[in-house]
Design a protein that fits this description.
4 helices; mainly alpha; 0% strand
Length: 101
């Protein structure tokens, strides 16, 4: 990511320097440079949102895997226990709990 930022900054610097010379700047070059800059900035500021967008993440898991479950904070453990206990015999249950800290 650092290299991306440095190269985009260098691109803008080169474009500004081209203005001082007799060389003409092309609109398409500046447009692509701007789009690249916005993409890298969004990737730095919102990494999870960009990863989900690029991966096409939805609420469903991979083919054959049920969708992930989310639980409300108040009744979360009661929902978890209920769903876990309703599993059919022989069905594998995986419980993963993540802490924000």
């Amino acid at each position: 990511m650092t290299l991306s930022v440095l190269l985009i900054v260098y691109g803008f610097w080169s474009a500004a320097r081209a203005r001082q010379c007799t060389r003409r700047r092309r609109t398409i070059n500046l447009s692509l440079l701007t789009v690249s800059g916005v993409f890298v900035a969004c990737s730095l500021l919102f990494p999870q949102l960009m990863a989900n967008w690029m991966a096409g993440a939805t609420a469903a898991g991979p083919a054959g895997q049920p969708a992930l479950s989310t639980f409300s904070p108040g009744a979360g453990f009661a929902q978890l226990i209920d769903r876990f206990n309703r599993a059919t015999p022989g069905q594998i249950q995986v419980v993963a709990m993540f802490s924000p800290t």
